[in-house]
Amino acid sequence: MYSYILRRILATIPVVIIVGLIVFSLLHIAPGDPAAVIAGDRATQDAVEQIRRKLGLDQPLHVQFGTWAWNILRGDLGTSIFSNLPVTRLVGQRIGPTLTLTVSTMVFAIALAVPLGIIAAWKSRTWIDRAVMVVAVTGFSFPVFVIAYILIYFFSIKLGLLPVQGFTPLSKGVLPFLKSIVLPSMALGVVYVTLIARITRASVLEVLNQDYIRTARSKGLSVFQVLIGHALKNAAVPIVTIIGVGVALLIGGMVVTETVFNIPGIGRLTVEAILARDYPVIQGVILIFSGVNVVINLMVDLLYAVLDPRIRY
What we know:
Radius of gyration: 24 Å
Helix content: over 70%
Strand content: under 5%
Order of helices and strands: HHHHHHHHHHHHH
CATH topology of the largest domain: MetI-like fold
Number of helices: 13
């Protein structure tokens, strides 16, 4: 068990290095000269060259990468070009709403999708199964921003139940917090729900056709015991996999969702940095998102061994 965990952790090191190389390359493959952007349109060539030297852009690429990587290892993601604040400080100011939205979306999606998938598998080839699959396919076909605007139109404009935009922290009250987070979580979670529900249905349906399920039924176990205690437990590996993979969807949809609902999170920070061509902030945010993906994929790999002891590779 411990050797398996060690191998999986060591396997992430090359991935982290490749991610670092890609993120570092963004500064050099992006159109335009970062030094010229910082200096402004009216800056002289001497001023641009001075900024380039200050940023180390006049150094060879391997020297620049070594300096950048060393700073990353020390927890220094650089300094924003326009606000002149450390990137870690900017991220720290925005991380709260993003974490809140991520957790609430995952809770909403998993709590809804897994039961839907189990019911669809249990009622396979009935109208319930077809209805769940129609909803799943429909939800997966709409972009996040379209779902967001539909929800805003009905729940905010027509019914007036929830605020259109903004984020209220939990410290200002449970009810205002819930009202501000419901629509963003639903908009971001719909695609996640459909994806998990489809995989859950397929996995549970495959398990329900196994001999040990028929044996469990013949022993007089209840439907709940068969579905949860036997079917879901043995179908957990594909479900856990898609939940982990779906985090990438959350990260991609986070940028759109926070922009539509005016949530001051890391997604909004990313959009602002891209529009301003604030390269250190862009690099720092992408590096954080990539690191989160690597860590979650590692956790999913480690969960495989817990859910299915036969998995050893």
